């Protein structure tokens, strides 16, 4: 059984036991804290496929907070040709690493 959830403006295909990095959520960042994703867009399993319009009412994905991690560094380089203008910058996005515990339909 797998589900497609939406969080942080992105969609993820998840199964029980999956570990994924999602955008920061308003949690207290305690390892082992339970999270629930209620924006379930699609569920595929034993009972067939259920597609939401846009979400499936009553469906949710239960997860456990594993850790707070940072994404790889993204380098930003801006320049203007023939002007000698160069700017260098970088960015690292913060993520929460979660483990999917169950899919409730």
Key structural traits:
105 residues; mainly beta; four-stranded antiparallel sheet
Summarize the structure.
With 105 residues, this protein is mainly β.
List the helices and strands and how they pair.
Elements: E1 2-7, E2 10-15, E3 19-23, E4 34-37, E5 40-45, E6 48-51, E7 60-70, E8 74-80, E9 85-91, E10 94-104
Antiparallel strand pairs: 1-2, 1-5, 3-10, 4-7, 5-6, 7-10, 8-9
Report on this model:
Helices cover 0% and strands 64% of the residues. The protein is mainly beta and 105 residues long. The chain has one domain (2-104). A four-stranded antiparallel beta sheet has the order 2-1-5-6, with no helix packed on it. It has a four-stranded antiparallel beta sheet with strand order 3-10-7-4, with no helix packed on it. Strand 8 (74-80) and strand 9 form a beta hairpin. It starts with a strand and ends with a strand. The mean pLDDT is 94.
Question: What's the total number of strands?
Answer: 10
Q: What does the average pLDDT come to? A: 94
Compressed to H and E, one letter per element, the order equals EEEEEEEEEE
How many domains? 1
Note the total helix count: 0
Question: What percentage of the residues does DSSP assign to strands (E)?
Answer: over 45%
- Helix content percent band: under 10%
Kindly report how far apart the N and C termini lie.
11 Å
Tell me, what's the shape?
elongated
Global Rg: 18 Å
List the strand order in the largest sheet: 2-1-5-6
Main sheet summary? 4 strands, antiparallel
Which consecutive residue ranges, at least 5 long each, have pLDDT under 50? none
The assigned structural class equals: mainly beta
């Amino acid at each position: 059984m797998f589900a497609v959830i939406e969080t942080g403006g992105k969609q993820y295909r998840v199964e029980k036991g999956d570990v994924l990095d999602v955008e920061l959520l308003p949690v207290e960042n305690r390892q082992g804290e339970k999270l629930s994703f209620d924006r379930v867009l699609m569920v595929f399993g034993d009972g067939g496929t259920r597609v939401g319009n846009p979400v499936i009412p009553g469906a949710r994905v239960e997860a456990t907070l594993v850790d707070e991690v940072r994404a790889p560094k993204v380098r930003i380089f801006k320049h203007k040709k023939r002007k000698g203008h160069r700017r260098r910058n970088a960015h690292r996005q913060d993520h929460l690493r979660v483990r999917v515990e169950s899919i409730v339909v």
